[in-house]
Amino acid sequence: MDFISVILEGFVNNILTKPEFFIGILVFVGYMLLSRPIHEAFSGFIKATVGYMILGVGAGGLVVTFRPILAGLNGRFGLNAAVIDPYFGLNAVNKALESIGLSTSWTMIALLIGFTLNILLVMARKITKCRTLFITGHIMVQQATTATWIVFMAFPQYRNLTGAVMVGVFVGVYWAVATNLIVRPTQRVTENAGFVIGHQQMFAIWATDKVAGKLGDPKKKLDDLKLPDWLSIFHDNIVATGTLMLVFFGIIMVILGPEYMRELDPKFSAKLAFPTYIVSKSLSFAVYLAILMTGVRMFVGELTESFQGISNKILPGVLPAVDCAAVYGFGSPNAVLFGFIFGALGQFIAIAGLLVFKSPILIITGFVPVFFDNATLAIFAEKRGGAKAAAIVPFISGILQVLGGAVAVAMFKLQGFGGWHGNIDQSSMWLAQGFLMNNLGIVGYVIAIVGMLAIPIIQFKRAKSPEHYFDNEPLSDEEVEAEYA
Fold this sequence. Notes:
Number of strands: 6
Subunit structure: Homodimer.
Membrane topology: Multi-pass membrane protein
Transmembrane segments: 21-38, 50-70, 100-121, 133-155, 161-183, 238-257, 277-300, 335-355, 361-380, 392-412, 432-455
Oligomer: single chain
Subcellular location: Cell membrane
Number of helices: 18
Keywords: Cell membrane, Membrane, Phosphotransferase system, Sugar transport, Transmembrane, Transmembrane helix, Transport
């Protein structure tokens, strides 16, 4: 038994939570199944692993550099508020579990159960209609931890192995169903690149794909916006990102002040002038975004080609579900920036509303939801509804992230722990499912699970061409029009 535990622990610590190696191994195995020479398989492993690591450097740089600035508003003004960010949420849940005498060891058990269940649901795809495998390890850890608190709080009698199994089933079904839900939208955006998104906004992407076409004209793209000659420089993604971030974060850093920024950032030395620091810090946003997109292009190319081997010979018709940043290399480069700006605007207005109406729960913007959720939604919105939809959808998402986050903090009793997961799926879909569990007990839990399992079956029954459901080919323009008629 100890031997099995060591193997499982080693798998979690060295493969499952290291998505770069997971992706690299998948690429290596895929090329071998395609009967490629071993040196080509090794080359694919290196390029995919390095590509994902580059993506991680870009994403990590954005998070580490800019999350403290947004969260600094909390400390600077002495607010007793919750930061909506999965890392703050992770810390909050750990403290909450410790407050009731538990640790996150149950989370690791739930993580393995959930991942295994995702595989089983895919293997039984003729019945379940699930065709996607969630492989974004660090996201799985975050979600399993948050779900542990939701389930353990709703069912105090099951704060044991039974509860861990319930958490594993909940997250495993969510990973399989939510990623399966967005196969068609992702294939359209990426032109059948061979993956789907496995992150924290899949239900929101599905909703975006359904409504964005009604919000704007898909032919009026962001890149087609007619600007005065002097504004045409903003058609360049680097110029647009650098300039807007200089304004956006520049204002926030001026509000926080140089003394407080030096407390937040040890690298901000006394010899460095505040204006120089602001310019340098703000422009680093464009640097990390360019790094991130470079990594995306590198690993997506290898994964797309090699996964055909796994898809054809081991799990036919199955797609890997990867980090949401993988779609940033598709569509308009300015959609990422557009989504972030309008999502932040929506969040700031919603936070102002909480202050005006003296909400007992105050929310502080977290970087991960406001950037990664809304940038992703903007890409899908622009595809279906053009520039107008790319602005409206992230704006509404920003409002929902704040209001849903405030309700979640109150419902899940996380006041005083400083954070909530905050991403749009967790502040909407999981919020509703948590409400069912809190108020209906086991019946509510069963409704949540069965309700999710029914979604891919309904998808299959409603498919215009069910005979092509598992081949994952993108729809033609005529088929898209028929689907949305």
